[in-house]
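Running log. JK asked me to keep both predictions on one page so they can be read side by side. First protein, sequence followed by its tokens:
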Amino acid sequence: MKLLLGNLAIIAAVVLFAFPADAGKLKMRDGKFYSGVVEKLTPTGIHFLWQREKDQPQIIKSGDSDMLFQAQGHASEVRAVPFDDIETIDGVTTDRFKPLFSSNMFYRTMASLEASRIRVASTGDFVHQIVAVLALGLVMGLLIPIALLLLSRVVPGESLSFFGALGFTVVLGAVGMGFALGSSELTRMFEFFASSGAQIGLTVVLMLIIAGVMHVGTKFSFFQGIVFTVVAGLGMVLARFAVDTVAKILVSAV
């Protein structure tokens, strides 16, 4: 049963990360929309990782080949976009987006994870994408759980098993995505959240909720819940650098 569950988890992870990423929408003042994710704020604008369709090899477009694994994924490129040209980012106006991106840990972490997914989808053909997925999976499914496992031996309280740490990473990823979307919606709807202080406060509240649920529903302490959340979130951000490195190598080989 454990082997079956493990295999199902691997399959689910591969399917999740291999899906074409659709991290968000950039709406321009001229009415155009772009799919992608914000990677950086500058004093005058954003660095936007744009995801677009990639031209396929002629043999694939003609439909005369069974070599579908040669089909290319998406293409991506980073563009500097000035605030003056932007109407909304994920439905949020630029003045409210700045504190959301810079001060909300959950939104920033999930944006970094989505950037990793976009780069996975733009590394080349199916084989290259699988290699990039494995690089991301290595960090998400091995390095982060090992870090949590070792940390649980140091932080006072119960110790995590490897599969317990892996489960926490997966659940935190799912919950983090929900919190990121919720934070974006709250920021879009209420002007109250249009400040760094409010976004930091929202981040703290969400972290306390995770730690509280973890403490009540499991044998782990409230403090452990906070520490595990911070470390796993940091690991998800750092996973982007591993994917970036692999993606650059693979793209240069295409």
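And the second, directly underneath as requested:
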Amino acid sequence: MNPGDLWRERALGFWNVAIRYIRLMATGGLMVAIYGTLLIIGVYYQSFLDWLPADFPVLQILTVLFAFLLTRSPVRTFLKEGDLVFLLPFEAHLGPYIRRSLVYSWMLQSTVIFFLLFLLAPLYIERLPGDTMAFAVIMGALILAKLWNVLAEWGELRQQFSISHWRHRWLRFAVNLVLVFFLLQTDWGFALAIAVIMMVVLGMYYRQMYDKQFLKWETLLQQENQRLNAFYRFANSFTDVRHVKSPVHRRRWLANQFDRVTHRKANTYIYLYGKTFARSGDYFGVFIRLSLVGGLLIYASPEAWDWLVVVIVGLFIYMTGAQMVPMYFHHDILLWPSIYPVADHMRKRALKTLLRGLLFVQTFWFTVIAALTPLSMTIAALTLLAGVAVSLYFTEFKLNKSIDEK
């Protein structure tokens, strides 16, 4: 098999697995999250632009944002553990494999930049100099700059010491800052001068890295595994991924609260899932993030659209519940929970009890935020009712169905 076919086989293998997980995520709450995000953007975007102060540093923030996105240019290689033995001797013949990895990484990351630019287009046209044509030129220039950064990143990955890699990355960030600043200011002459300098550096400096230094296979494999684990952790937020490596946090102040659970057979899984929520995976982090984002949106809701608060509460309560469902399968790879002398229906009942309590806490939090805003107390009361209703619907009906589907 030639290197190009090997890369194609591995890329297709990854996407076959990824598409299966994406389908599972779509039924596990991802589509609700996407629809909710689009709804929030559609409702709040114009209000946000109207609210934004005239002296807000839009230029500086966009410059830093896009300079960061340009500088961060990881290369997907689809390498595997065995490649350290079987592919390393053929490094000199892997040109087609490497070129496909570079093009794939560039196109994927350029897509992110394209959609972000599309999202920020109204902000750019309203607050920065330039028209639609200038915006299109900026978009094309940033996509080409992303290609330059991917190629530079690939050269820097060959360096022996990580400190040298980070030094080069910071230098690229500085160059990207200057380039993006001139582009957003529509100073085409200065931007073109920076682009010419970047091409000269790529041809004369980074080309030497390609020719004189070998690939750091251990580093490439480590980064590939990190990106795979990041995808699986994201998928695990919506569906069960058995082999995902979840981080563990001590969080004594929270985990110790579940030590108060009465020690009897019926509470076995309440204790286990309580400790799991507090320490394992990212369940606690997801709960906090959704609570904060939902509270912020409630607080920022315009009075003319007060009914939207009820929609936000229902949406975020549902999203939180959907993200907690994988907790049911969190310990399936371990032997000990399977030999507990506890009926299986108590396992579902325990998760239902814990999740109901968490959703009620989140409902109370949203109600307090609604009561502190200029919105009427009627809306605050409806917020409470909506939160309780969605919490009960999810725990009493949706939870069992979601578990059975997985």
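Observation for JK regarding the second prediction: The chain has a mean pLDDT of 82.
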